[in-house]
């Protein structure tokens, strides 16, 4: 509640009212603020807590995607903690790349460029609805097509990039714009590769709105695809 009402004591406030000579965070080099305390501090311990929270949210998103019949086996990539943590959570992602973008995703891109590319929290492959007549039940899972042909025909697939970000509860737009800028080059490369459609889905959750995580999970695991993505 104090976060919501903007009354959490921090150096930004102290500086504004003349109680501090600067607005610097006391434990890292950044400017202090309520949002900084909850999701931006660079101090090692704070950073680890923030990353842990982000990973937990990512895990929920991947779990929810796996519950959906149409997307259960279509997760091509995750950026979620270690493989051990994933299996601890009951996530079977043996065929899914984790932390490193798979080379088959962008075969036209040089290895060093792929390594330097931005990485969303998850990448989902769905058979293109435009050319659905060419997609049969047998080859509608990209894992199966990859195993058979060692490559995909990009023209038959939609790529959905999923990015999760914590944001200010009442001012989500800066984080949305940040996510779009972060992945703009990757999106351009995927389009250049020839994929039928490339979409970025940014899931924003207010830094204090932990209830939104449960809502997000319900939305992804049960709602229509258009509502999810
Ligand atoms: Zn800090």
Written overview of the protein:
By secondary structure, the chain is α/β, with parallel strands linked by helices. The protein folds into two domains: 1-42, no CATH class; 50-228, no CATH class. Helix content is 40%, strand content 14%. The protein is built from ten helices and five strands, in the order αααβαβαβαβααβαα. It has helices at residues 11-16, 34-39, 44-67, 83-88, 111-116, 142-149, 173-182, 184-193, 211-222, 225-228; strands at residues 75-78, 97-98, 122-127, 157-167, 197-206. Helix 3 runs parallel beside helix 9 (211-222). The chain binds zinc ion (ZN). Zinc ion binds next to loops.
Features:
40% helix, 2 domains, alpha/beta, 229 residues, binds zinc ion, disordered C terminus, 5-stranded mixed β-sheet, 10 helices
């Amino acid at each position: 509640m104090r976060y919501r009402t903007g009354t959490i004591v921090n150096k930004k406030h102290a500086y504004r009212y003349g109680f501090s000579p600067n607005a610097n965070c006391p434990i890292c080099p950044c400017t202090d603020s309520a949002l900084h305390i909850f999701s931006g501090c660079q101090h090692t311990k704070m950073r680890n807590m923030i990353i842990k929270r982000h990973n937990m949210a990512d895990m929920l998103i991947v779990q929810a995607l796996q519950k959906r019949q149409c997307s259960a086996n279509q997760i091509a990539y995750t950026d979620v903690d270690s493989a051990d943590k994933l299996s601890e959570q009951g996530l079977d992602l043996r065929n899914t790349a984790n932390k490193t973008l798979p080379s088959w995703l962008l075969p036209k891109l040089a290895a060093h460029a792929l390594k330097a590319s931005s990485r969303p929290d998850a990448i989902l492959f769905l058979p293109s609805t435009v050319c659905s007549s060419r997609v049969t039940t047998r080859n509608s899972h990209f894992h199966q097509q990859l195993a058979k042909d060692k490559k995909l025909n990009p023209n038959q697939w939609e790529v959905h990039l999923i990015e999760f970000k914590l944001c200010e509860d009442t001012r989500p737009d800066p984080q949305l714009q940040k996510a779009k800028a972060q992945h703009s080059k990757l999106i351009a490369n995927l389009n250049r590769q020839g994929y039928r459609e490339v979409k970025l889905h940014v899931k924003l959750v207010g830094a204090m709105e932990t209830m939104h995580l449960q809502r997000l999970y319900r939305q992804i695991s049960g709602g229509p695809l258009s509502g999810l993505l």
